[in-house]
Amino acid sequence: METELYKVRSLARCTQAAYDLFSTNLKNIIRKSWQPVTAIALLNAILVSLVYPWLLHTLTATHVGTALWEAGATMIILLIFSILSLTWFNATIICLLNGQSLATNFPRVLRLVLTMTGIGLVIGVIIALLSIFPMMGGATALTTQKIIISAAITLSTCIVIYACLLPTVYSSMKYYMELDQRLRDVFGKPYRTGWRFWGFLFVIILLTGIICGIIYVVLMMPGFVLQAASRYNESGVDLGDPSSLPAYFAVLLFLATFISAAIWCYVMVWAEMVVYYAYGHIEAQTAAKSQQPAVIPDSPTDNFPPIE
């Protein structure tokens, strides 16, 4: 097994090195990250088994205005807790990758997470406005042509935005790994370097996404089935039929979601390690072209002592 970071690797070698690092140090990763993973899993379980059914019931209540305020306040609170728990988890993993303390990494990760969240909200508003723009012209009714134009504009916008944000996969990891990098550098010189390796980043993210997507579907299938059963039962209850679900169903849904979310967090650790080695590959390539040695920090195996 070789885990040297700054080394030119193929796509397959990056994924293999990430798997080797992950599998060799799994016990250490779990020992270091079980607390934020528990927080994320608990938040997901509460959202799926308690908050989501409550929101559906609240939004169908008689006092719609009050229901909207309650639902909006609940979603804001959940968003805040989600950002904090995800930042805690990501900062913990970054601590293992760059060897720094949580006190050093947490504010850096939080700044980037907040920035990307803000960018995501702005992008969401832009896409929503562009999608409804073709339907605003004229007094005629909604037509198939307008729907097709709206879908085409939305899809094209999403593709352009994805293409523009892809180089941040590299620049964000560089920001995490090199403490002299500032937040603005994520869209500075490292971002331009990421553009030069756009094809490499696209393929490695596509490959990682396919693998993670397959794992996600299999992992979340029990929760999907239980949620579907809950929705069908709710529909029957609304029509006057008695509930056909057992008394322990909510507990079963909670546990299934909790376990699936916890395991999914560690799938994401592997995915982040793939990006970690992609960053090392790009650094090695850039150093080779400029005929300058890459600045190599501690070996990953120093930050990840395997536990027997």
| pLDDT < 50 stretches | none
Instruction: Determine Rg (CA atoms, Å).
Output: 23 Å
Shape: globular
Residue share in β-strands: under 5%
Largest sheet: none
Mean pLDDT: 84
**Terminal Cα separation, in Å?**
16 Å
Number of helices: 10
Q: State the share of residues found in helices, binned by percent.
A: over 70%
Derived from helix and strand composition plus strand pairing, the structural class reads mainly alpha
What is the count of β-strands?
A: 0
Structural overview:
The chain is mainly alpha-helical and 308 residues long. 78% of the residues lie in helices and 0% in strands. It has ten helices and no strands. It has helices at 11-24, 26-59, 64-98, 102-132, 144-165, 168-177, 189-196, 198-238, 249-290, 300-303. Helix 2 (26-59) packs antiparallel against helix 3 (64-98), helix 2 packs across helix 9 and helix 8 packs antiparallel against helix 9. The protein starts with 10 loop residues before the first helix and ends in a 5-residue tail after the last helix.
